[in-house]
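Reply to dn_fold:

You asked what the input looked like. This is it:
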Amino acid sequence: MAVHKEVTIGHVHLTVSDLERSLSFYRDILGFEVTARFDSAAFLSAGGYHHHIGLNTWAGAGASRPPAGRTGLYHFAILYPTRRELALALRSLGAAEYPLTGSADHGVSEAIYLDDPDGNGVELYVDRPRSEWKVSNDGKVEMITAPLDIEDLLKAADS
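and this is what came back:
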């Protein structure tokens, strides 16, 4: 059985060690809005959706990070609607002096990588129009990993 072609990933829910610190990242730097808040959990959204990101301290405030080199979440991705919006997010990260872990041009998309305050991998990206994607003769999308032109991306914030 194949999953229906219109299925999407709806949200991510993360265990964090410090709810306020995580809210400062997702709300204040990335710009998501809080849609619900409880003592040990918060839910954030873009555009009024019930939530795209859930945060909780149910494992306990100050819980330790999982050790490196183990299975689990590698990263989750936030898809921006336009290159300009991705550039504005990059500008906000720069203004906050928030460190990036990498960036890439994947041919089909442009991506910025970072870790949230609890070490969860986060990809911020924008897709290129599907008409620009390279597709092999057997119908497979051909992705690459090339350097991202950060300066050119930042220019899009002013357009």
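The two ends are 44 Å apart (CA to CA).
Hope that clears it up.
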